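ok here's Phage protein D:
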Amino acid sequence: MISTLRLSLLIGPVVATPAPASVVDAFTGAQVTVTAGQRSGFQLTFALSRRSPLSTSMIPGGYFDPGIRVILVVTVNGVPTPVIDGLITRQEVGVSDGIGQSVLTVTGEDVSVAMDLVKWKNIWMPPVPAFARVATIIGFYGVLGMVPFPVPELFPSLPAVASPGEPVQGTHLEYVNKLAKDNGYVFYVEPGPKPGMNIAYWGPEVRIGMPQPALQVGADARSNVSSLNFSFDGLQRTNWFAFVQEPITKIPIPIPVPGIDPLRPPLAARPATALRFAALDDSAKDGVPAAIAKALARASESSDAVTGQGQLDVARYGRVLKARALVGVRGAGTAYDGLYYVKSVTHSIKRGEYTQSFTLARNGLIPITPTVVP
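and the structure:
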């Protein structure tokens, strides 16, 4: 259970500073969505009146303009947790004759949106491994507190030394995401560990580590989850195979690839059966390492046949549930208890209320461990 919970709001161009009292007093709510493998988004709402500082000076002066940086920090029992660090992309004002009905809404995305603003064409990267190219690109955005954390590829593929390298087509974000997809990796920006800092992670989707405190259902007063529903999709999992060219005859040879990833071990004792079979498009021209990497990525993506959706009250749970991490489930029965990967979390924050909606995922039924973290 939470004894103290405090929300801090920082706003400003490039370097965000604590919001003035007039902004804090007008704040009515926030919604932040964090999803594995995707950009995080946020939406903040503020009460407006004709004579409030927000209407008379801040909005006209550009305080909430697109491009302004926003950092939202939740402090639970003295421990600060940055929930979002992003840039405003949209501003909306709803004006009403009713007292207290006028609203300012600002919408935005995490700081990686800055990587998606400039289209490049034929900007050549040096002939180095993909993870080094990613680190170089992320370094351009250090002013936003982005710290590169690239993981070397499992199957590196280098451009020829004599070549000028590889051209960047599109935005930096599109190029980094392309490199991630080619290697079966993900790219995302995680705020923290301190406000103003951001870890730019490029690497495999890691599903190992210390689980978060368990989600308890069906235990009356001891339950810490408002609702939790599970589904088992028999058509989700797919058997993938790649084609590689035989070097002499150039005949494409199919190679089945098992969905085995050391950083993404199975979370269920009875994995779902793969009912679908599919081949990678144009994998023969990629070479064996690249083709295997892509096939492994597709197999991992399709392995989450069991999903759970629920909602919790942070005050009852006792901490902030984080996406892109493991969590245990208790009280759902033999088939659905055990460890899950938290695919997404939506934070809904209002005065006196903090709830989270979440999505869980794993590869099948029945837990692999007899107990989960309390």
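+1. The chain has six helices and 23 strands.
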